[in-house]
Amino acid sequence: MNKRLALAAFFAAALGGSVVMYLVVSSGNGSGDGNAVTQPADSNQPTTQAAPRLKVCSFNIQFLGHFKKKEDEKLAELLRPFDVVVVQELVAPPYEGNFPDGSPYRPDAESAEFFDAMKARGFAFVLSEEDTGTNDTIHLNTSGTEWFVAFYRPGAVGVAADLPGGFLAEDRSNHDDYERVPYAFPFRSKDASVDFVLISVHLQPGSGARDANRRAHELASIAAWVDAHDETEKDFLIVGDMNIEDAEELAKATPGGFLSLNDECRTTNTNPNAPKPYDHVMYRPVDTPELDTEFDLVVLDLIEAMKILWDSNQPYPGEPYDHDQFRQRFSDHHPVVFKLKLRGQDDD
User: Fold this and answer.
1) For the chain, how long is the longest CA-to-CA vector?
2) CB 57 within 8 A of CB 346
3) Checking CA distances to 293, which of 17, 20, 104, 264 falls within 20 to 30 Å?
4) Angle at which helices 72-79 and 302-309 pack, to 10 degrees?
5) Do 85 and 75 form a contact (C-beta atoms < 8 A)?
6) What is the DSSP letter of 269?
7) How far from chain centre, in Å, is Cα 95?
8) Chain-centroid distance, C-alpha 304
9) Across the chain, what does the average pLDDT equal?
10) With the C-alpha atoms ordered 302, 199, 263, 19, is the resulting torsion angle positive or negative?
C-alpha cells in the first residue's frame, strides 16, 4: 500500500467514513498590510464540496518557523483532509508585510515552507496582524512570542468579517489577563447554514498552583470577552493548547456555561513519559447545537501518522520515541479534531 493510501486508511480509522484525497497544486505567496492577513486560495485550486460536517483541527506545532528540521510537507499532508486548521506556536511570519505600527516583518523561510505546503494543498489562511507574548517586547522572530493563524478551504467556509474577530485585547505584550492574547477567527460555511468563531489560545504553561491559577484567569477573561461580544453571534469555541494538567484543574478552570470536548482528559502531548491533557475545545452547549458531540473529540496519533509518511534512511524518531528529535521534526502535541454540523439554517 502506498503512503497516500495508508494515510487515507489511518484517517478512515480515526475519523470514520471515507477521506477525500485532494490533488496537490502550487500557489503564490501572500503579504500583509498592517491588518489581519487573509490569503485567498488560487481560483484553480481544488476545494471541498459542502458536506454534512465541517472537519476542524487544532494543532500546536511546536516552534513553527524556528526548527529547520521541521517536516513541513509531511505535516501539511496530515492536515489535508480538514476544512479548517487552527495552528498555535507559529513563531515567525512567512511572507513580507507590515505590523500595525508600519514597521516591516522579517519573513522566515521555515514558516514560508509550511505555508507554501498548505497552500499547495488548497488552503487559504488568515494570519494575525502581529505576534503576542508575555514580555514587554514583541515583533520578535523567536519562541518568546507567537502568531495566530487559521487555514481554511474556501470551498467549505469563508471568513465572516461581520462577526467578532481579531485579538481579544489591544495590547498584545505583557497583558494583565493573558500570557499570549488569544485571537478570534470568524467563519461561515459556504451554504450559510452555520457560522462560528474559533478563539485560538495558548495558555500559561507549568505545573504549579500559580500557573493553574493563571490559566483559570485567562479562561475567565476569554469567557468575559465572549459575553461582551455575543449579542448577535452565539457560537464561540475556545480551542488550542490550554496546558491543563489534569481533570481536577479542568473542572476548576472551565468557565461557567462551558464544557470541554476533552472532558475525559485524554492525552494530547506526544511524550509518553509525561502524558498530559493539554489541548481542549471548550464550547457552550446551549448556544452551539452545531457541534457534533456524538463524534466528540479525536486526538490524532501524530507518532503513528508520521511513521506512515517517513521516507528517510535515518531511524524514525517515533520508534523508539526520541522526544527532542520528534518535536523538532514534527511537534510535541498531537492534533485534535472535532466536527460541526451543517444544519440547513443557522440559528443565530
Assistant:
1) 56
2) no
3) 20
4) 120
5) no
6) B
7) 19
8) 20
9) 91
10) negative
Contact 268, 336 (CB under 8 A): yes
What single-letter amino acid sits at 173? S
Instruction: Dig out the grid coordinates for 124 from the structure.
Output: 487559504
For the chain, percent of residues with pLDDT exceeding 70: 88
| Cβ neighbours, 10 Å, residue 272 | 11
What ranges make up the beta strands (E) of 190-342?
A: 195-202, 236-241, 259-260, 279-283, 298-299, 336-341
- Cα separation, 130 vs 91, in Å, equals 10
Which residues make beta-bridge pairs with 84?
56, 152
* Residue 55: half-sphere exposure toward Cβ, Cα within 13 Å: 23
Question: For the CA atoms of 147, 46, 191, 59, what is the dihedral angle to 10 degrees?
Answer: -30
Contact 116, 70 (CB under 8 A): no
pTM score: 0.91
What mean pLDDT is predicted for residues 260-286? Answer: 98
Please give the Cα distance from 196 to 6 (Å, whole number).
33
Distance CA 347, CA 233 (A): 9
Contact criterion met (CB below 8 Å) for 32 and 105: yes
* Size (the chain), residues: 348
